[in-house]
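Help needed: design a sequence for this.
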């Protein structure tokens, strides 16, 4: 399959992702915005992209890096304003698209995902942990307390005690991102392939919400 270039159209159309707002995404963006300081020179400013993670293994971000030379092409269209891949410390208030890896497992995750949702126009759940809880969710039938007991007492050889301060409190149940906040796009896979990520990103840049049913199958 020929892979699309950011900004090109490949299917049903909406309008390009442009503009900057702190409102949660509720639909397809419609407002073109031009003339920002990051204007790439063709009248349209770059899309503000963020990536972040919750309870995951970082494998989904590794798959994002597997875009390889396509990252250079992507960089012509987006400004990476926050990510584990860059040194920004604060999540900005006016992100266009945020890609989020991992499940919601702790109180920290809960605070973070709500903050990210408030500050992002579109939110993409990246990978099976974000979409279904996947590996982190394996503790759900067991419960958080027995897992902590097993990890910090029964399996420990030194200092057998459950930390009360060093780790964020676990939620009783691990949740997929969409059970906490609205998600605009789901990208399944463990991890999603770079090809799928590229297809989704190019669709988003063209102003369409990617339909995972047409892009990928769960478990693939
Ligand atoms: S979906 Fe797979 S690769 Fe991605 S964070 Fe979860 S375990 Fe890691």
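Sure. Designed sequence:
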């Amino acid at each position: 399959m020929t892979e699309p270039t950011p900004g090109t159209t490949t299917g049903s159309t909406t309008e390009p992702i442009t503009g900057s707002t702190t409102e949660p995404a509720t639909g397809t963006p419609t407002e073109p915005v031009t003339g920002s300081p990051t204007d790439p020179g063709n009248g349209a400013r770059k899309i503000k992209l963020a990536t972040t993670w919750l309870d995951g293994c970082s494998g989904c971000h590794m798959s994002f890096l597997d875009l390889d030379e396509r990252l250079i092409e992507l960089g012509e269209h987006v400004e990476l304003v926050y990510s584990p891949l860059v040194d920004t410390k604060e999540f900005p208030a006016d992100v266009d698209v945020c890609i989020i890896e991992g499940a919601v497992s702790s109180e920290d995750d809960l605070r973070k995902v709500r903050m990210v949702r408030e500050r992002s126009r579109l939110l993409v759940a990246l990978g099976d942990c974000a979409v279904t809880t996947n590996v982190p969710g394996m503790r759900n039938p067991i419960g958080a307390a027995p897992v902590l007991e097993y990890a910090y007492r029964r399996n420990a050889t030194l200092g057998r005690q459950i930390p009360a301060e060093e780790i964020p409190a676990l939620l009783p149940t691990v949740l997929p991102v969409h059970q906490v906040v609205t998600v605009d796009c789901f990208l399944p896979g463990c991890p999603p392939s770079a090809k799928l990520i590229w297809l989704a990103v190019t669709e988003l840049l063209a102003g369409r919400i990617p339909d995972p049913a047409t892009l990928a199958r769960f478990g693939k």
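Residues 1-16, 18-41 have pLDDT under 50 and may be disordered.
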